[in-house]
Specification:
The protein has a three-stranded antiparallel β-sheet with strand order 1-2-3, with no helix packed on it. By secondary structure, the protein is an all-beta fold.
Length: 70
């Protein structure tokens, strides 16, 4: 098994979201972007394969820039 890199880049003051998988852009959304509080989560479901499942979160980074308090 290999490790994979998943990344979401938020641009244009939160109006454009780019999704990357192993450094390659795989999708962009500009509509239907949630405005509610979001929390990172991971779920493993049974896909009919072996009963043993493993998920290693080696690194997680959440960066918010441009916040202004008035």
């Amino acid at each position: 098994t290999n490790f994979h890199d998943f990344m979401i880049v938020v641009r244009a003051l939160g109006t454009i979201y780019d999704f990357y998988f192993d450094g390659q852009l795989v999708g962009t959304i500009t509509v239907g972007i949630p405005i509610a509080v979001m929390q990172p989560a991971t779920q493993i479901t049974n896909n009919g394969a072996a009963a043993s499942k493993t998920l290693d979160h080696d690194y997680f980074q959440f960066v918010v820039t441009g916040i202004v308090r008035g």
